[in-house]
Amino acid sequence: MECNDGVAQGRNEAFRTSRRSFLGTGLAGGVASLIAGLAAEEAFAPRASAQTPLTPDEALKELMDGNARFVEGRLTSFEHDLQILKSHTVDKQEPFAALLSCADSRVPVELIFDQSIGHLFVTRVAGNMATPEIIGSLEYGAAVLGTKVILVLGHASCGAVKATMQGKAVPGQISSLFPHIQPAVDKAGHDLEMAIAENARIQATLLREASPVLAEMVREDHLKIVAGTYDLGTGRVTLLEG
């Protein structure tokens, strides 16, 4: 059964209006105030950035080295003493990287990058979309916790991208995902894997351009924002250009 064109058009217009309103005011004002409050709340503890002396490039290399270990079956994170890890993360967290990944159960983020407790700040949503809530979370990770790299991670056979391409009527709120992903589908045509990669690129670009907080950190070389895709068959993460 095809979606009603009028309903879909109204939904898309409402989405665009509300998103513009949020990004124009919320990220510049409300989220900045939230971050300031959270930063003050954690002022008693040393800043994560001071305790994680990685540059953005080094942080990205650490991620990719972990994925290489995963692909080769040489995981080291399981050798870490969980009691020590837990005791060091009770009162604070010091992640070196942040991820925006799909909610897909086949993409276990910490595992595929061979990282243990407290190393990654992870946000997940179907279609790895940069919604206002996700942007605010990643701003907190970078500005307060000191993450040095944000990786937007798409994956092969993404159901959210497939559903957007099909454009069929779906139950509940599932169709609310479609407007976020449609630009990638439009650009890639009916090639699923191209649309998945393009969606990751678009969401990474949105993070750089829609958030003044993240944009400033990128400009000052305190943060890197990149896109990549995960191959379900090989376990390999491939970074994308652009």
From TrEMBL:
Q: One Pfam annotation, family name? A: Pro_CA
For this protein, the parts annotated as crossing the membrane are 21-40
Q: Which InterPro entries does the entry link to?
A: Carbonic_anhydrase (IPR001765), Carbonic_anhydrase_sf (IPR036874), TAT_signal (IPR006311)
Instruction: Establish whether keyword Signal is in the entry.
Output: no
* GO MF annotation list: carbonate dehydratase activity; zinc ion binding
Name this protein carries in UniProt: carbonic anhydrase
Give the Enzyme Commission number.
4.2.1.1
Could you tell me the superkingdom of the organism this chain comes from? Bacteria
Keywords from UniProt, A to Z, are: Lyase, Membrane, Metal-binding, Transmembrane, Transmembrane helix, Zinc
UniProt cross-references to SUPFAM superfamilies, sorted A to Z: beta-carbonic anhydrase, cab
Cofactor(s) required for function per UniProt: Zn(2+)
Q: Which family does it belong to?
A: Belongs to the beta-class carbonic anhydrase family.
Q: Does the keyword Transferase apply?
A: no
Q: How is the cofactor bound?
A: Binds 1 zinc ion per subunit.
Residues holding Zn(2+): C102, D104, H155, C158
Q: What is catalysed by this protein?
A: hydrogencarbonate + H(+) = CO2 + H2O
SMART domains per UniProt: Pro_CA (SM00947)
